[in-house]
Amino acid sequence: MYVAVKGGERAIENAHAWLAEERRGDTSVAELTLAQIREQLSLAVNRVMAEGSLYDPDLAALAIKQARGDLIEAIFLIRAYRTTLPRFGASTPIDTAAMACDRRISATFKDLPGGQVLGPTFDYTHRLLDFKLAAEGAVPEAPQSQAKPGPVPHVTGFLNREGLIEEAPQDDTPPPDLTREPLAMPADRALRLQALTRADEGFTLGMAYSTQRGYARTHAFVGELRIGTVAVEMDIPELGFAIEIGEITLTECDTVNQFKGSKTEPPQFTRGYGLVFGQTERKAISMALVDRALRWQELSEDFTGAPAQDAEFVLYHADNIQATGFLEHIKLPHYVDFQSELELVRKLRREAGASGPPVDDGTGEGGGQPG
């Protein structure tokens, strides 16, 4: 905790008041409602929920409004609020194979049971500004989806039938909870995936891009990308079975990666995996690529020195809230620290026989070389 200056409470209160005024903006313009943010800025809401580790679209919309659209500040607000909530239980593992998909694509197989569903995507837009939106005109009604309702199998299952892809690791050991325990090294895959799913999207994207440019040699195909809703269930001891307590929207990505084999494993494909709250496909794909790069050791591959292979580097720098706190603290007062550095530099210059113009040290006395 940094304390700025004694007697600075009034200045801080004034800064908060000014911030509130700037947040509201021109009062002749209608104020944004939480429903508008939730429904029309849904991708921003999804990012705040994912990196804030709290699935609540309304609270995410409130955080975005309070933060004036600064998503990292909004994520900070959500994480801080999350720590105040009591925990009364844990859900059972979700079944993404039973996902009701709004979007499901594969870069590895054209014809899939259940079909490919493009869904709502920017992929095929021309990236030209649509000035109709500025006119606030009517929104065209989308045609009804031709996707068949119901669960669809994972694409990697087709490769698994022939033994062409590694078996998904099965481990029922409860993983550590990163929201309650600090990150510790070495981190197993479950802990790495936790860190990546709430990592900063931009950082994760940069790490993923580096793997595609050769810094990890993990050329990947998107085996499957799916977005949809899954049921969340919870065991009720009094009942003796699990009941559904709600549904959440998720994005899941399975990548298929090359693997030359080892002394114990034949040549086959390997997996990278990403799972994120909401429609956040760029993050899910990035997460899967980084996950695969971090698995070099368990797959007996060579460490090439690529940043994306260094678990300590990736995981300790991926959290945008920690990064923001450490970055922004340097704009707070460090007067004493700087004065000690200033005196050290003056002493070194005296010892070196250097001379120069007087240095203003902020005291109004001109500073300079003491006689």
From TrEMBL:
It comes from the Bacteria. InterPro entries: PhnI. It is an enzyme of class 2 (transferase). It holds the Pfam family PhnI. Its EC number is 2.7.8.37. Keywords: Transferase. The keyword Cell wall biogenesis/degradation does not apply. One of its GO terms (molecular function) is alpha-D-ribose 1-methylphosphonate 5-triphosphate synthase activity. This is Alpha-D-ribose 1-methylphosphonate 5-triphosphate synthase subunit PhnI. It comes from Maliponia aquimaris. One of its GO terms (biological process) is organic phosphonate metabolic process. Residues 351-371 are annotated as: Disordered.
